[in-house]
Amino acid sequence: MSTYRQRQTEGALRDEIVRVCRLLHEHGWVPATDGNVSARLAPDRILVTPNGLSKGFVTAEDLVVVDMAGRPQPSPLYGSNRRRPTSELPLHLEVYRRRPDANAVVHAHPPTSIALSIAGIPIARCMLPEVLVNLGTIPTTEYAMPGSPEGPGVMGHLVERHDALVLQRHGSVTVGRDLMDAYLKTEKVEHAAEVTFLVAQLGSPAPLPPQEAAKLIAVRRLRSQMSPAEEAELCVACGLCEPTTGLPGDDALVAEVTRRVLASLPTSRNTQ
């Protein structure tokens, strides 16, 4: 890639990170200096937010280029940067190592998601059809001190199978094919958490009937959005109905309904 083209691409990516940071800040999901955002600049280069700076005030020039070992690198656009990368950089690098398909990572501190993780209430239950189709389950990790070496470890095996998860007592991590994809998944996670919280206040949860959940899972499977490992653990993560080994009920009927649902869906990965 020519130097001019590299600068042009890096500039656009920096602007997009700043835009995502502003959105997170406006929602109140990155209070004070919390949260961090990154994007893959090249196969061996990551562009990431700096340490100790509010995401509501971060600028394109503040962002730091690092290699896959976390070492700061000069930018073709801005040269050397005196700022240090986020203390959560190991978390981002762990995602990129485990997910070659990932081009962006958003780590936010959405309050309802964090509150549910403290209360021990999972967001993984099969209640919202849009969440089940687009994200599958949203697991919660074991606790690890923020910024500690243990953080990437408790997350690593889960992020191989999930695009969104909750770090216990800490926040959310979403993975995307691009920055906006990762950001929108953060929105989806917190919305699911808010609905889960309201349902808990109103009474016992009302999961989707198993056969209806199976139709949505089939849509996710046929779109190649669900890995075999995720599918195997889905019923265990949900825990609201008896685990099944396949589609419940009449397989032919469910398959036909699934075909009709797929025919009515837009080509985009998201149904909303």
CATH class of the largest domain: Alpha Beta
CATH topology group of the largest domain: L-fuculose-1-phosphate Aldolase
Quickly give the structural class: alpha+beta
Calculate Rg over CA atoms.
Answer: 19 Å
Give the termini distance in whole angstroms.
36 Å
Number of helices: 9
Instruction: Look at the structure and name the CATH superfamily of the largest domain.
Output: Class II aldolase/adducin N-terminal domain
User: What is the percent of helical residues?
Assistant: 40-55%
Most strands sheet? 7 strands, antiparallel
Order of helices and strands: HEEEEHEHHHEEHHHH
Task: Tell me what the CATH architecture of the largest domain is.
Answer: 3-Layer(aba) Sandwich
List keywords for this structure.
single chain, 272 residues, alpha+beta, L-fuculose-1-phosphate Aldolase, 2 domains, 7-stranded antiparallel β-sheet, 45% helix, 12% strand, globular, disordered C terminus
